[in-house]
Write a structure and sequence with these properties.
Length: 278
């Protein structure tokens, strides 16, 4: 009878914890918890715990966990008071789970890349729901796209927005590489402002790779030298084809793999320049 079960009225986060030489470390925990509260605020949801309490909750559950690498899923949701669409006096419940989650897009995806398709399903408009919130109900849109892609033999879907521009994958942000520069979009394209996305933009800037923030077209995608997904679960995953169009050489590109290598060294505690993210 919880409101969330009937209407998807929850907000959540996906956070990764990695084994490092000095123990297990959670990647950008504070930023994830901040976004959880921001998502709740966009839906009028007053999370009844302090940010510090949730941060400590994520740390405590990792201490109890028996996995070396862990995925952490905090969720805040409307519980039971009414089954009316207006949650009125429904309590806001909070839970945190953790478990081992392997390669999100399949074994070998990080090394070989994935095959994608442009989804017939459009990403919901920013005028319909706030795409910058990580809302539970939002992912019905993603579910339609990815199940369609899987049925047609692809690894993942790419959604277009209502304006005809590229939005994102079913659960990932997207980057295009052309002539040594990176192109990606922003919230105007109905995307979630991913924390991995933000990390890669910062890393790229620090190694003198220019990042252009603009609308992305299908032509840019098809004619790219490289394309890659980013996300907490997907990390940095190369895209080797879109429908029947091979991207670049059809194998993971140099910039993609450079960023993947730097990112994985950061989360594994092997790059002291970014230790503040752990």
């Amino acid at each position: 009878m919880s409101h969330v079960l009937h209407y998807g009225s929850g907000v959540f986060e996906g956070i990764k914890c990695y084994k490092t030489e000095t123990g297990r470390s959670i990647f950008r925990l504070k930023e994830h918890v901040n976004r959880l509260y921001e998502s709740g605020k966009l839906y009028g949801m007053d999370i009844p715990f302090s940010k510090e309490k949730l941060i400590n909750g994520c740390i405590d559950i990792i201490k109890l966990s028996e996995t070396s690498d862990s995925y952490i899923r905090p969720i805040a949701f409307y519980g039971y008071d009414t089954l009316g669409v207006n949650p009125k006096n429904c309590p806001v419940n909070v839970a945190i789970a953790t478990f081992y989650w392997g390669a999100y897009l399949g074994d070998g995806a990080l090394d070989k890349g994935v095959r994608t398709t442009i989804s017939p399903w459009k990403k919901f408009s920013v005028n319909s729901m706030p795409s910058i919130a990580k809302g539970s109900g939002h992912y019905l849109n993603s579910m339609l796209a990815v199940t369609d892609a899987k049925k047609r033999g692809f690894d993942e879907a790419i959604l277009m927005n209502e304006d005809g521009y590229i939005s994102e994958g079913s659960g990932q942000n997207i980057f295009i590489v052309k002539d040594g520069e990176i192109y990606t979009n922003d919230e105007k394209s109905s995307i979630l402002l991913g924390i991995t996305r933000d990390s890669l933009i910062q890393i790229s800037s620090n190694i003198d790779i220019k990042v252009n923030i603009e609308n992305l077209t299908t032509e840019m995608l098809i004619n790219a030298d490289e394309v890659f997904f980013s996300g907490t679960a997907s990390e940095v995953t190369p895209v080797c084809s879109v429908d029947e169009n091979v991207i670049g050489s059809g194998t993971p590109g140099e910039i993609t793999m450079t960023l993947q290598d730097i990112y994985m060294n950061i989360v594994r505690g092997k790059n002291s320049s970014y230790s503040h993210w752990l």
